[in-house]
Amino acid sequence: MEFVYHLAVVAHMLGLAALVGGYLVAVTRAAEGLVPNVVMVWGARVQVLTGLILVGLAEAALDAEVNNTKIAVKLVVALAVAALTEIAAARSRKGKAVAPGMVHAAGALAIVNVLVASLWK
Ligand code: HEM
Hints:
Layout: H1 2-28, H2 38-60, H3 68-93, H4 100-119
Helix pairs in contact: 1-2, 1-4, 2-3, 3-4
The site of protoporphyrin IX containing FE has 22 residues, from helix 1, helix 2, helix 3 and helix 4.
């Protein structure tokens, strides 16, 4: 089961790369309007999904202690990132205006979650 847990960590890291990488690519193309690309949207989805899987595996299969306060903060931030990217992407698909602040907020909150994950022990 530890191997499956480590596979989930790999998926969590690839989701992080897609989310922040997708955001940086969106910023470099902001001249055409700042909208989330499909890589960023999927990165945000993958982070929520793999994060929940990691906690479930740690608690149920590995009998490991998780810091519930830290996880709650990460979940709220990740849901905000996912909501912002989904709403901005849906507005862009419908040809509606997207406030650049929505996309920047999603990118900034993703980085906040990296800081929470790495610095809060
Ligand atoms: C934007 C969303 C997220 C980002 C950018 C993110 C980022 C990270 C990073 C960088 C790590 C590695 C930290 C380290 O090893 O020191 C990590 C680990 C972890 N994350 Fe997330 N995370 C996100 C969302 C979530 C969510 C929503 C949950 C749970 C509900 C979660 C649960 C975990 C757990 C349990 C680990 C520990 C993995 C391990 O090293 O054993 N994450 N996350």
